[in-house]
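User: quick one - fold this with zinc ion bound?
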Amino acid sequence: MQTTKKIWALAVATALAAGVQAAGPKYVFMFIGDGMGMPQRMVAEDYSRRSGRGPLAMNALPYQCLTRTASANALITDSAAAATAMACGEKSNNGALGVMPDGRRIESVAEVAKRKGMKVGIVTTVTIVHATPAAFYAHRKNRGESYRIALDLVASGFDFFAGGGVYNKYDDKKDSQYRGNVFDLARAAGYAVVREKGPFLALKPGAGKVWGVFADEGLEFDIDDHSAYPTLKEMVAKGVELLDGPQGFFMMAEGGKVDYAAHANDAATTIKDVIAMDDAVKVACAFAERHPDDTLILVTGDHETGGLAMGFVGTGSKFHIHLLERQKCSTESFMKRIHGMLEKDPGLTFESVKPLVTENFGLIFDASAAKTADDRLLVLSKAEIKELADAFAADVAFVKAKKQETRKHDVRRRQKFAATAKRLLGNHTGVGWSSGSHTAMPTMTNARGCGAERFIGLLENYDVGRRLKELLR
Ligand SMILES: [Zn+2]
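Assistant: Sure. Structure tokens for the protein plus zinc ion:
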């Protein structure tokens, strides 16, 4: 035994002395679900199976690890510190992008890939200057510096960007570092800035550097009408088409709106965005079938959001996840629709909007209308109907007062009605939430292909970034 060990050690030492290294992956796909902890993935898994779509591809990747998500200064991380850890391999403070707590710049795995001569793509369903994508190309102490982050995007020289916009900060003349409209700067740096879905999908290999910008802010939730924008799957497929070549590529693709839906404790919307992300993972899996020896696929989340639970006190041990199929739009879009109706007709009554609740959330007001066993699970109690009526009255009062709610993520005060309908459907389904914010639950990372065996066990989130960087060096 000892002899075998010695021979092995000698062989390793000889190989290292001769500069022999195992070849790393040539093609890397890194998928990050924002706010996608283990429960988001497992609720989507259960929903997908029970609704006949089969298991999720992301959960079936053969190697798994759990990752602790604490940042340098908080047990509960924000997206910036989490993305910095996974992109750059170091824990920093909440709010920081690509810099240590002392402001020292840290190289990201995307920058390592670029330096090595690989092509690089960054894709998201939220704004491209949002914390998760930004940690791969930007170096800023404050994630809120949208204009400056966009300057870093242009300076990165990465080959492919696709996703939402730069808020209203793309031409922020008030910024002391103002250098011009960021889209003009990108064009001057050789980017084709593509603003429409059609021309984007028509791009062919050889298009040069591309920045696809499809909205001012994030794209729509998958559950809502998102036909004006490319899906995450379409953006990843286009990225593969444009980045594929002899140098290989690194592509980070974020399902960014999972976090928004989970902040709103909106289970159906969360699930649909996880499944939309899984469709994009399938594009990577199909690519890996063609390049099995040199492709690495990694799917992870930056943190859990909402304290999502599979089981709710009101439904006991019953869990009817398939009932979420009755929800037809996000809480946010339902709220906008109701508020739009109230602005036109302030005299709108609760009676007149009840059919909309049934149509969009499946909830049934009158037990005699319940035809199937599933219907009977969705019949509202008198107390629940009163809750909905009170919530509707609150929305009526809100719209009358024309209050403006600008606090990020805190939309609950202005959408009591939609939020109550969504919560009641969740209760009847058996979905529970413990928070409207991030939690410290670990996230799950799954991997497949070249180097995937490095992602096992219980890791820190920075290990994900470190191991990726090691594989690409
Ligand atoms: Zn996040």
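One thing worth noting: Residues 34-35, 79, 82, 259, 302-303 surround zinc ion (CB under 6 Å).
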